[in-house]
Amino acid sequence: MREAACALSGLLLWACFPKIQIPGLVWVACLPGLAALATERRLKRAFLLGYLCGAIFLAGSCYWFVSVMEIYGRLAPVLAWVVLALFVIIMSTFFGGFGFLMGCAARRSAGWALALSPVLWVAMELARTYLITGFPWNLLGYAVGAAGVRQIASVTGVYGLAFLAVGTSALLACVLLTPRRARTWAMLAGWLALLWFAQWRLAPPPESAGPETAFLVQPNVPLDDPALETWTPWHDPAQLQQLVNLSRAAVDDFSKTSTGPHPASATPLLIWAENPAPFYFTRDPIFRNSVENLARQAHAFVIVNTVIPVDASDRLITNSAITLDPEGREVSRYDKIHLVPFGEYVPAWALPGLVDKITSEVGNFVPGTSYPVAQAAAGGIGVFICYEAIIPQLARQLAAAGAGVLVNISNDGWYGDSAAAYQHLEMARLRAIENHRYLLRATNNGVTTVIDPYGRVREKLPRYRQMVLPAHFNFETQRTFYTAHGDVFAWLCVAIAALMLAGISLKHHKLVSLGNGPRATGGGQQSLRSKRD
């Protein structure tokens, strides 16, 4: 019965996210699993129950690993499934650890276990963010869709939303296990009233167009083209010129037709997506001259993706974003810090000898170490690349360094038409809320979009179309608590979980000690029986 409950929670957690994404499900998804774990005092069994829930959730969320590794990593189908299985086996240990510690608390009482669950869940998600390469994909808070409640992330980060969701499931589980206890019903009513108040009080203001302009270029280059392995636009001036002409035409057409509230002194941003094949800005004069001339002719800040060799042998390279000012001068270079497992390097634990290259340089990328911000007249521009949108601290560091707008360039073509591209978008939206910044997101084949500081998708392009999105935004200066202080809430949850577990352990050992003494009480004998269980 407990196995079925935890398996159900794994399925419900999966259904919280795109493409299924059942509205409101996040508030009850953990309920079956928490009810099962809160009444399971056998630690090994509690670990396995949590592990089962996590394995189902992760396999469902990341099923797209198989097609990515098969199509672009050129793995045999069996090996592609092996890679997914290895990922699930390893990453599910975080959920198993959650179950184990819930089992420790359940030895005290079901109520203690349920009270521990929200802070323990946050601690587990923090560990997922930073340990074993760091893969915080589909943290539970991303599934919270209530616009008002979501604004809490500007203080707590995405972890605070997970705390609320798990706390709701825990209170419902408490009512389920003790339906006649009036105090439990009162706590649940108060908790729901608090969520309603947050949804009402923190509701975003009406949408309004920002005074600044950006042009997000979606080139829609197919990744399944066999010629892509040797696709070098700088050696084919016609292809490169097509992309330049597309950008110039969008700027010119907008200038002719725009009647919006745009100041005459405003300088637009022209943003190219992350490329499926490498541009070499520092090595190729044709490409460099083209984008420098584009910046001057469009009188815009231009952001392009490039690969930059860092040694004479060209074996070590960075995945970088270059920002040019309206005079065509390089004003900022951001080197990608958090590299993609299997895309830019192969983890040592994941059969590196068997995994072929997804890109021609896979395994040779080196991470950057700094958070540069390009300075425009109206504010700072902070750029991060693709997968880095799922790392809360990275966007926060850019905002703290002075970025008034965040730019995410990405190539979601690797995901095909799977749920991953839409999951990626949901995660990127929280970076805007956490730091109260507009997020300009240019992708190769979608979803190219503008997200406002409240996490709302304001404008977007259809997928699989070669188009340019003229977007309105503003440089923001408000400094949120999260921007200023980072993951204080998450680390506070870690501390509270540790203190609660220490208290439970101390109480348990005292009861065991009493049970072994000459004046053992019935309570001590019960503790001994619990320990043997």
Itemize the secondary structure elements and their pairings.
Elements: H1 2-15, H2 31-37, H3 43-61, H4 65-71, H5 77-106, H6 110-130, H7 147-150, H8 153-156, H9 158-177, H10 182-201, E1 212-218, H11 237-257, E2 269-272, H12 285-298, E3 301-309, E4 317-324, E5 330-335, E6 374-375, E7 380-385, H13 392-400, E8 403-410, H14 420-435, E9 438-443, E10 449-451, E11 457-460, E12 467-473, H15 481-485, H16 488-516, H17 522-532
Parallel strand pairs: 1-2, 2-3, 7-8, 8-9
Antiparallel strand pairs: 1-12, 3-4, 4-5, 6-7, 9-10, 10-11
Question: What does this 3D model show about the protein?
Answer:
By secondary structure, the chain is α/β, with parallel strands linked by helices. 47% of the residues lie in helices and 13% in strands. The protein contains 17 helices and twelve strands. The strands form two sheets. Strands 5-4-3-2-1-12 form a six-stranded mixed beta sheet, with helices on one face. Strands 6-7-8-9-10-11 form a six-stranded mixed beta sheet, covered by helices on one side. Strand 3 (301-309) and strand 4 form a beta hairpin. Helix 6 packs antiparallel against helix 9 (158-177). The radius of gyration is 25 Å and the shape is globular.
